[in-house]
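Each record in this resource describes a single protein on a pair of labelled lines. With that in mind, the following record should read easily:

===
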Amino acid sequence: MIAGSAHQESLGTLLAEAQHGDRDAYRRFLDGAMPLLRRVAARRAGAGPDLEDIVQDALLTIHRVRHTYTPGLPAEPWLAAIAARRAIDSLRSRGRIGARELHDPLALETFADPQANREEAGGASRDLDRMMADLTPRQKEALKLVKLKQMSLAEASLVSGQSIASLKVNVHRGIKAMARKLGA
């Protein structure tokens, strides 16, 4: 491995040659850049299981933006900035996903028993029937087909005989009437 500014210069030279179409120089540039990318990613995100994903993401980014490198400047800071940004993006993504993931293996067992929540389901069904009691027959039909049975508007139109526009209006008015009743 070449040390110090000679390493920067050689990576910069290789990348400049790669910008002019030299495939061998591009391969050598990527091989030479890998240790730097790993170091920067590990420093930013830790040496966890995502380290190689971050490095691969950095390599893809480098490939996409290699034309932005200015020949004659050291390539190492340019590479480090890309790797650092990919590591930060990974940490942010991991944080967002981790906030939504379930880590309790028993949390998914809620409906394992066929009798589980049967009482609550019956109550919800009665509440829905009560809320729909004051709706017009066409509104009830539109809500049942489109929202409860999850039919497309075209399918519901064929089944009910209502036009698609009529179904949209009836669904909207039905939901609005139920919301008013719920608010009262």
Notes: The two ends are 75 Å apart (CA to CA).
